[in-house]
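ugh ok fine here u go
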Amino acid sequence: MLELAKGIHFPSKSEFCCTPEIKESEYIKAKEIFDSECENITNGYKIIIQNQKDTGYKYYFEINVDASLLWNLFWDIGDTLFDELNNIYCIYGFKDSEDFELGDYKDKKYIKSVLQKYEYSIVNDGFLSLGIAFDKGIVEEVLIDSFKFLRVFTSQKEKLLSVLEKYNLSEKTDIRFIDEFAVVSETVANQENNLLHPEDIINELNEVFKEKS
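structure:
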């Protein structure tokens, strides 16, 4: 099974049955489903959309990788897909948010240097999503979902596959992603005293990536 982020785990019985309306039998069923499928929550990828038209991108990938490799894979994909672009923007927000914050276009090396400070939280915090993107005629986007798998929108399929091959990631039709199961999301700020809460990270990123009006 995949090495999960620190802020994601299958719930204990007390976490699952947190209200009187939730029966123990529901927890048992959820755990049986998880246990039977967890071996498919593994390193690899699935192509969700192929040869899309009129959207700015042709392909949409979902990618699983061990949490310890997530940051490096994120930037290896970003550096590869954005290799001919000097300016990109950062996209970030809370888990399940319908309206992510969009930063202004900035030098990609500068964006990388800023985000380095938040690496641990970006990789592990169950309430924080963050990515990098370009959207001017074409769309290229690499996003670390709050459930800590990658969502990639691109038209550069072969470039992306070359990176995935370096990480020994292959296409798997039966692959499962952790957001398909009943899991608990936690902020790692509650686990480590020196870490910022997601809302504080978002506020700091707004200060850095958005021009003052």
